[in-house]
Write a structure and sequence with these properties.
There is one protein chain. By secondary structure, the protein is of the alpha/beta class. It has one domain: P-loop containing nucleotide triphosphate hydrolases (Rossmann fold). Helices cover 48% and strands 17% of the residues. It is built from eight helices and eight strands, in the order βαβαααβαβαβββαβα. The strands form two sheets. A five-stranded parallel β-sheet has the order 2-3-1-4-8, sandwiched between helices. The chain has a three-stranded antiparallel β-sheet with strand order 6-5-7. Helix 1 packs across helix 8, helix 2 packs across helix 3 and helix 6 crosses helix 7. It is globular, with a radius of gyration of 17 Å. The chain starts with a strand and ends with a helix. It binds zinc ion. Zinc ion (ZN) binds next to loops.
Amino acid sequence: MVNIVLIGKQGSGKGTQAKLLANKFNLKHINTGAFFRKHIADKTPLGIIAEKHIRKGELVPDKYVFQLIEESIEPHIKGLVFDGFPRTYEQAIYIVKRYEIDQIIFLDLPVEIARERITSRVECHLCGKTYSLLTAPPIKDGICDNCGSVVGSRADDKPEAIDKRLSEFVEKTNILIDFFDKDGIVTTINANDVVDNVNEKVSKIVGDLI
Ligand SMILES: [Zn+2]
């Protein structure tokens, strides 16, 4: 098992990088945000609880996040790529107790760039395909290229929610980096670059572990 954690602000491209890594190295992509959105769409008990917090721009309480992760791990996988988890010290304690973490990759991005990327991001409400109005908009304005459904901001991408999340992130990330740095497993990558360049650097790190 090779277990990787990607840490980065929203907009740092960690979701994209996690997906690329998962495909390339046959790892399970643990995306708690997407898993929660699926639960919310399906109106599961976990989804109903998560939605209340996300709408207010709050993080979902840990016990529900842990439950979500446990439920989504399948047997017979080569490893895990954690995307957007852990976010807090408590979650970091949990993850090292539960899994052997080989590498933390911190995708570093200035706050202003992160805000700009997030506010330009839209998503298909039906199939989940994401677009950037800055760099990769849908072909027809407001319509998904994939399925023809309506494309718009995510419920948790309203400006107040974004600012709240970004400031929470900065505050908590320094604690996380210090925590994992004790084991010498943190590598910082400049995320203010194109996807391919970031991917090359990240793949090199993971490739060396496999
Ligand atoms: Zn779609």
